[in-house]
Specification:
- By secondary structure, this protein is mostly helical.
- The protein has 3 domains: about 35 residues; about 40 residues, no CATH class; about 80 residues, no CATH class.
- It is built from 5 helices and 4 strands; from the N terminus they run ααββαααββ.
- A two-stranded antiparallel sheet has the order 1-2.
- Strand 3 and strand 4 form a beta hairpin.
């Protein structure tokens, strides 16, 4: 390999690395600005790295004892946290599990979330809600004037993952 070929190789290699770094830094900046963003390939990338490095895919917990003694416990004895589920996918999953009064599947479009709200009163409550056990969500009520615009749909996916 001549000096010119080597210099060209270094320039191409450095430019390729620089482009990947710019993309990575742009993603980091976006994730810092909006903490609701989630890298959907994070789990896949983690699994690939652990496989490549031949590291077991489990976390370890350090439990301090007395003095300088510590004990390391494998996370495999603990329940693992659930994976991230995109809010739109969860809403679609909830809507696809809807059933009519006879238990038959019913196709429900998310467009109903855009329809005007119906106030629940003692008179219409039994017609609107047959059983509290029929639902996987909670009804919330508020004064439309006080909240700023009326009804909203809130989806909780655990811990701080609450979407409006």
């Amino acid at each position: 390999m001549s000096d010119r070929e080597f210099v060209d190789y270094l320039v191409r290699s450095n430019n390729a690395l620089g482009e990947r770094q710019v993309i990575g830094l742009a993603k980091i900046a976006a994730f810092c600005k909006d903490q609701n963003l989630h890298e959907l390939r994070q789990g896949e990338i983690k699994d690939q790295c652990l496989h490549e490095w031949q590291i077991p895919n489990e976390a370890r917990f350090v439990i301090p004892l007395f003095g300088n003694l510590q004990i390391f416990i494998s996370s495999s004895i603990f329940r693992k946290a659930p994976g991230f589920e995109r809010p739109h996918a969860k809403v679609e999953s909830l809507l696809s599990s809807c059933r009519d009064a006879n238990g038959q599947p019913v196709k429900v479009s998310p467009d109903f979330l855009l329809s005007p709200a119906t106030s629940l009163t003692p008179e219409n409550l039994s017609g609107a809600v047959r059983s509290a056990f029929d639902f996987k969500f909670v009804f919330l009520g508020s004064d439309p004037e006080a909240v700023g615009g009326g009804p909203a749909f809130y989806l909780g996916l655990g811990r701080t993952k609450v979407f409006r």
